Amino acid sequence: xxxxxxxxxxxxxxxxxxxxxxxxxxxxxxxxHTDFQTRMEALGLRKGTVIEVLVNDSHGPVMxxxxxxxxxxxxxxxxxxxxxxxxxET
Length: 90
Prior knowledge:
The chain has two helices and six strands, in the order ββαβββαβ. By secondary structure, it is of the alpha+beta class.
C-alpha cells in the first residue's frame, strides 16, 4: 500500500481527476529514463505540470488534457508517471 495516498501513477486516476506531475520513473533507469523523460517533455508533460484525465477506462490508452492540448498515451507510459492529486481551488 502506498504510504502517500495522494501520490499515484497516472494510470490510476479516473476521468475528470486533476493532478500535478511529480516525477517520471523508469524500471530500467539510466539512459532509458532520460529518453522517456525527453519524450514526455516533447508532449508538454513536465514536472509541475497540471493534467486532467479525459479518458481512462482501466484498459487501452489514457487521454489527458495538458493546458489546451489533448495527449494520448499507452497504459505502460502512464504507469511511469507519478502524480499528486490536485485539489480544486474554491
